[in-house]
Amino acid sequence: MQVAPTLWLEFHGTEVSVAEQARTVQIIASEHGGTDFSWATKAEDRRKLWRARHDVVYADKALREGAQLWATDVCVPISRLAECITETQKDLAGSFLPAPIVGHVGDGNFHVGFVLNPNDPKEMAEAERLNQQLVHRALSLGGTCTGEHGIGCGKIDFLLAEHGEAVSVMRAIKTALDPDNLMNPGKILRVQSPSAVTVSETIQASNLGELEALARELLPQMTYDYYAGGANDETTLRENRAAYERITLLPRMLVGVNATDMTTTVLGEHVSMPILIAPVALEGLAHPEGEIATVKAAGAAQTLMTLATLSTSSIEDAMGVASGPIWFQLYVFKDRDISAALVKRAEVAGCKAIVLTVDVPMLGKRERGMRTRLMLPEHLSVKNLWPAGLQGVPKGVTDSGLDPYLASLFDSALTWKDLEWLAGMTKLPILVKGILRSDDALRAIKYGASGLIVSNHGGRQLDTTPATISVLPEIVDAVAGAVEVYVDGGIRRGTDVLKAVAYGARAVLVGRPILWGLAVGGEAGVKFVLEMLRQEFSLAMALSGCPGLASVTRDLVRAL
Ligand SMILES: Cc1cc2nc3c(=O)[nH]c(=O)nc-3n(C[C@H](O)[C@H](O)[C@H](O)COP(=O)(O)O)c2cc1C
């Protein structure tokens, strides 16, 4: 049987029982043609399945890049577990080898996975050294260890006494992982690479609302809250949706709509539909591939993605997999050099426009986020900021979480004059994102904008601003065709797209649903979102008597 990298199961810091871990092993085995996992019908089980896959993808990536995973299993009495983990962390901190503690469980068992090149004698020697330390530590705390000189699982009788059934589950895990190791303790357990990791599960959702429910089940609460939340009472967040529901459609009959053509251009770039991807920070929290998966899915759907300044993939990595147009969303930092460098990198990498976000002079009061205090796990960072030396939240700077810290780096003194500064610095067209008033729309054009995105940041900034769809028509009218006008916020249905286009939007941008797609199925999940919206929009066009976008006009919509 092929051995899977179970050692990489993090469970997002949550302690799980050995029994749960055994089931995860079963899941992973099934990924590699092993046992059946049809039992994973309950939400809780699906969550485990997702997490297992999530972490397997990381392992797989490291392995493809030539690393190998080796591991030591440590078992100590539950009463000594915390102490053992703290001391082990100290051991590992002093090593040059990446050796994360993973999958520590409430029954006194955890693993240390060494990511190393076994052909490098220095790395091998270091792994041996660390392994010995772990063994001695475990023994001194009355435990055992399956690493070199360890006693092995055959002698974990103290656990049997303390935990009864847990031990038999643990034996099952060991058997699933490596029967040899169970019988012959005394060597580091080698964990082999799975040949391929695929997420083949079909997504069981009839619409984007159901997809969000699936994602919510899967995501850690902290991540879901960060993604889903809005500012204050979330009035604008709700209103973004509610306003679409208040707009009715007046379909034209007997037009002949056996085919609908929704192709269009956005700032001159061809796209297959007027449905684009909004910039969303930290997509790596939803899926190991993060923005990379989104860029690939956008390319496959022949539409456009906007890459966020605060992405977990670098501009260069994202552009490396792009097969369609990408815009780069820019925050202006107090240190202008950071922003200037980002613009240059976006240009060099081939981005087609800069999207300047103007509605974050300060961070909105996002109470869900304040409660959960989002921090990035160690393997993620805001990659675009590395060259500026901003690898993460400096220790001791804030305990309020990542978001407020990053926002504190933005320039809250920004004015329209700075748009001129930006326009003078780049040949790329600039879209201004965050416009809610027609006078601001005209100012933006005066100072150099080539396009506008009517947006309230998905209800995450100033609460009680109007729904974007409700101000779109007056902005479109004021602009009078001088530049293209886009809208985002609350678009969840093809009929929403129809309404926005009818009110004069060149295209819509979608934010959160992309994250739900990512969480549920990575690249396939984002494709699912885009195809769901495409199909719904196509149907809405046909049912409204619109064979092409030119016929999606304002007479189709009526606000209640
Ligand atoms: C989790 C999250 C992170 C976001 N990060 C950014 C960002 O970094 N820059 C930006 O301009 N907008 C950001 N936005 C706002 C989106 O670009 C977009 O305006 C909004 O999500 C649209 O609303 P929707 O989510 O209802 O589709 C973010 C939105 C969410 C939900």
Descriptive report:
- The chain is α/β, with parallel strands linked by helices.
- The protein has two domains: 6-197, Alpha-Beta Plaits; 208-551, TIM Barrel (Alpha-Beta Barrel).
- The chain contains 20 helices and 17 strands.
- Strands 9-16-15-14-13-12-11-10 form an eight-stranded parallel sheet. Strands 1, 2, 3, 4 and 5 form a five-stranded antiparallel sheet that branches.
- Strand 10, helix 12 and strand 11 (326-330) form a beta-alpha-beta unit.
- Helix 1 packs across helix 2 (43-64), helix 1 packs parallel to helix 6 and helix 5 (157-163) crosses helix 6 (165-177).
- The chain is elongated.
- The protein starts with 17 loop residues before the first helix and ends with a strand.
- Residues 226-227, 240, 278-281, 308, 310, 329, 357, 433, 455, 457-458, 460, 488-491, 510-512 line the site of flavin mononucleotide.
- Flavin mononucleotide binds at residues 226-227, 240, 278-281, 308, 310, 329, 357, 433, 455, 457-458, 460, 488-491, 510-512.
